[in-house]
Amino acid sequence: MARTITQVENDTQLGHQVLEQLFSHGGTAHLIGITGPSGAGKSTLVNALVRRYREQMPEKKVAVIGVDPTSPFSGGALLGDRVRMRDICADTGVFMRSMATRGTLGGLAKTTAAVVAILDAGGYDPILVETVGAGQAEVDIARLAHTTIVIEAPGLGDDVQSSKAGILEIADILVVNKSDHPGAEGVVQSLRSMIEMGTVDRGEQTQQTEPDQWIPPVISTIATQGQGIIELMDAIGQHAEIIHQNGDYQRKENARMQAWVQQIFQEELMKNWQQADSYQNYAKIIQEVTERKLSPYRAVQQLLKQ
C-alpha cells in the first residue's frame, strides 16, 4: 500500500497502471474531511476519533491522510501529523499516510484524491483526511469529503472573525475543541446563532424542517481527554445516513469525480503545451508583456492561436 501510494504521488506510469486496476474496486468508503485553523487541535482530534472508531468497530480498518504544507523556500515539509498520532500508528488496523502539499493551494495535495481511491480499494472505511492549517478559503476538502468537519477553538479570533464567509460554509459538522479553555462557550453560542440565522448554509435554506434536511450541529470536545468524541462519531453516522437518503451522497460523488477529472485534464493540457513548439515563444511573449508591448489578455490570445 505504501509503495503504491509513493508511485502515485510521484506521478509514475506504474502508479497510473495500478490505480487503473484498483479504481473499480472502490466507492464504498465514507470520506471524512477534517479542517480548521492552525492550533485548533485537528491532529489531536483525529487521533482521538480514530482510537474511538477502532474501539467501537474493531472489525473495520481506518485510514488517515494528514496533509502538511510544503515550504515555498526549501521545498521540505515537517509532516508533523505523525508526531501527534504515534499511538494509532502502532495499530495494525490503521493506515496512516502523511502527504506534503508540494505547492498546491486549497489545503490538500495534488494527489490526495488518488491516494483516497487506493485506500478505498484497499478496504479502509472510514478514511479521514486532515487538511493543512486552513484560513478562510482553503475549502478543497468539501469537494473531496462526504462529511466535512470544521474545527474551531477559543482564543483564535473574535466573533467577527468566526463569522466571515468561507471555511465555515463548508461545514457539515462544527466542532469547538479545547472546550475547557476560557471563552469556549461563547464560541459555541456564536456558531449556533450563525446556524440559526441561516448564515452557514452553503446557499441553501437551513431552516427547513424536512426530516432529510441536515442542519450542522455544534459539538464541544476536549480531544486530549477524549470528551465529546462519541457525540462526534454519532453525528458523522447520522450525517452519512441522511445524505444517502436525500441524494446528497451521489451529488457529492459526482462533484468529487468532476473536480478530479478536471484537475488531471488541466495538468495534461499544461504538459502537452510545454512540450509543443509554440512553447518556445513563451519567453518572448512574456518579455513583451513585461515591456508593456502586449497586455496579458492579448498574450494569451497569441499563445492560444499558436
Describe the structure.
The protein is an alpha/beta fold and about 300 residues long. It has 2 domains: about 1-245, P-loop containing nucleotide triphosphate hydrolases (Rossmann fold), CATH 3.40.50; about 260-305, no CATH class. The chain has helices at about 1-10, 15-20, 40-55, 80-85, 85-90, 110-120, 140-145, 160-165, 185-195, 230-245, 250-275, 280-290, 295-305; strands spanning about 30-35, 60-70, 95-100, 125-130, 145-150, 175, 220. Strands 3-2-4-1-5-6-7 form a 7-stranded parallel beta sheet, sandwiched between helices. It starts with a helix and ends with a helix. Mean pLDDT is about 85; it is low at about 200-210.
Feature tags:
single chain, 306 residues, alpha/beta, Rossmann fold, seven-stranded parallel beta sheet, 13 helices, 7 strands, 45% helix
Order of H and E elements: HHEHEHHEHEHEHEHEHHHH
Q: Which strands sit side by side, in order, in the main sheet? A: 3-2-4-1-5-6-7
The number of strands is 7
Query: Overall pLDDT, averaged?
Result: 83
- Total helices: the number is 13
Return the structural class. Answer: alpha/beta
* Main sheet overview: 7 strands, parallel
Enumerate the spans where pLDDT stays under 50 for 5 or more consecutive residues: 199-208
CATH class of the largest domain: Alpha Beta
Q: Supply the number of structural domains.
A: 2
Write the CATH homologous superfamily of the largest domain: P-loop containing nucleotide triphosphate hydrolases
Overall spatial form: globular
**Considering DSSP H and I runs of 4 or more, what fraction of the residues is helical?**
40-55%
Strand percent estimate: 5-15%
For the record, the CATH architecture of the largest domain stands as 3-Layer(aba) Sandwich
Could you tell me how far the N terminus lies from the C terminus, measured between alpha carbons in angstroms? 43 Å
